[in-house]
């Protein structure tokens, strides 16, 4: 993280009126002014020049929301203005770069050193989040597989030590251990090389241009075809019965045409909401966007930024919703309280801007329900 040893060493005034005036002047420009504003905000906050009233000073004297002030300060803390082409970058783009992981920030710039469009940086952030989520999923799968393998190893080890009266083939135990080792190795291989399938188009081009890869794969594929045939044709799935084996894969079993179609399970609320969010993300580019010709704190730009932040926050809430139950009690409670607070604020916004009295009354009822839910969470 940047320490800002050069520019932050410049002495700033301790007079709050002077700092307020300087910030207002810098708000009329862009680029380097973003760092100058951020430095002064940090200076006032860290030295308590507002005497415990930092938020009120920011909102009433400077004309920024507390959220916007935090963006300015975050940029100063994360980025080095001496290495940034500041006259060419607006607040939105600067903040998106500052909130990228440090090792990926160079991806926000083109080959000529100019900054990519904000929508491309946002897409990069979504891609990084998706990759992180995939890594976490693979880690969870690996942990589960290792746990299951460990239990199976213990059972097989006991079978080696204590002869099983129902089996006279120690080779079977050896075969079982070898299979568990192979599956464990495959799990590691999948985790390490799963990224290969992230770009199927490029992979197809590579295979077409290099016949050696295709030949090598075909040799390995032949083995796995044989293994797959055994798995899909076996009748022994732990307990032998005379019943017909359950259909595992349509590629290896004949599907009964007269079979009644299964009822399609109705999507759960959270799944329906994810579908709605996916649709909104696809439509995002057709919505009004930040107008770089206007001030970053103009009403339209502030509301557009709020809309984008709400969409990002909603995506994160839905992605993490099924993991909340596994968190510590304190973290679980704090997240619930913050989500409820955000939901109440959104309800108030909708209620105050309702098109008719019926919609306003509905929002009032929803607000009361959130109050009840908040009481329940607070008492936990």
Report on this model:
The chain has 380 residues and is mainly alpha-helical. The chain has four domains: 7-110, no CATH class; 124-228; 268-281 and 295-326; 327-380. The chain has 13 helices and no strands. Helix 10 (269-283) packs antiparallel against helix 11 (299-320). Mean pLDDT is 76; it is low at 1-9, 164-169 and 237-261.
Strand and helix layout:
Blueprint: H1 16-26, H2 32-46, H3 54-62, H4 66-78, H5 91-98, H6 118-161, H7 170-193, H8 200-209, H9 211-233, H10 269-283, H11 299-320, H12 329-352, H13 357-378
Strand content: under 5%
Tally of strands: 0
Helix amount: 55-70%
Ends distance: 38 Å
In total, how many domains does the architecture comprise? Answer: 4
Based on secondary structure, the structural category is mainly alpha
Helix-strand pattern: HHHHHHHHHHHHH
Q: How would a textbook summarize the main sheet?
A: none
Report the mean per-residue pLDDT as an integer: 76
Describe the global form: extended
Q: How many H/I helices?
A: 13
Identify low-pLDDT runs.
1-9, 164-169, 237-261
Question: What value does the Rg take, in angstroms?
Answer: 29 Å
């Amino acid at each position: 993280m940047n320490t800002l040893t050069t520019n932050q060493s410049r002495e700033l005034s301790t007079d709050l009126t002077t700092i307020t005036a300087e910030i207002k002047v810098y708000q009329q420009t862009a680029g380097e002014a973003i760092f100058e504003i951020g430095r002064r905000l940090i200076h006032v906050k860290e030295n308590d020049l507002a005497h415990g009233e930092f938020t009120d000073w920011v909102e009433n004297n400077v004309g920024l929301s507390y959220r916007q002030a935090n963006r300015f300060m975050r940029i100063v803390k994360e980025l080095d203005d001496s290495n940034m082409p500041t006259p060419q970058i607006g607040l939105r783009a600067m903040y998106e770069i500052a909130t990228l992981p440090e090792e990926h920030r160079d991806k926000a710039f083109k080959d000529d050193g100019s900054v990519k469009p904000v929508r491309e940086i946002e897409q990069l952030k979504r891609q990084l989040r998706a990759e992180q989520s995939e890594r976490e999923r693979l880690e969870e799968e690996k942990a589960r597989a290792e746990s299951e393998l460990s239990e199976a190893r213990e059972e097989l080890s006991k079978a080696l030590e204590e002869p099983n009266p129902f089996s006279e083939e120690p080779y079977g135990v050896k075969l079982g251990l070898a299979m568990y080792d192979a599956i464990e190795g495959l799990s590691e291989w999948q985790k390490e090389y799963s990224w290969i399938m992230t770009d199927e188009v490029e992979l197809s081009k590579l295979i077409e241009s290099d016949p050696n890869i295709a030949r090598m794969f075909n040799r390995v594929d032949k083995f796995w075809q044989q293994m797959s045939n055994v798995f899909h044709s076996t009748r022994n799935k732990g307990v032998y019965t005379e019943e017909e084996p359950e259909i595992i894969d349509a590629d290896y079993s004949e599907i009964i045409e007269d079979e009644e179609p299964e009822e399609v399970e109705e999507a759960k609320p959270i799944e329906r909401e994810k579908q709605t969010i996916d649709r909104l993300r696809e439509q995002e580019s057709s919505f009004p966007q930040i107008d770089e010709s206007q001030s970053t704190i103009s009403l339209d730009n502030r509301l557009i930024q709020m809309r984008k932040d709400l969409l990002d926050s909603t995506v994160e809430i839905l992605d993490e919703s099924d993991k909340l139950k596994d968190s510590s009690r304190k973290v679980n409670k704090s997240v619930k309280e913050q989500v409820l607070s955000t939901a109440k604020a959104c309800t108030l916004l909708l209620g105050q801007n309702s098109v008719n009295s019926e919609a306003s009354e509905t929002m009032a009822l929803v607000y009361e329900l959130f109050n009840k839910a908040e009481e329940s969470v607070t008492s936990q």
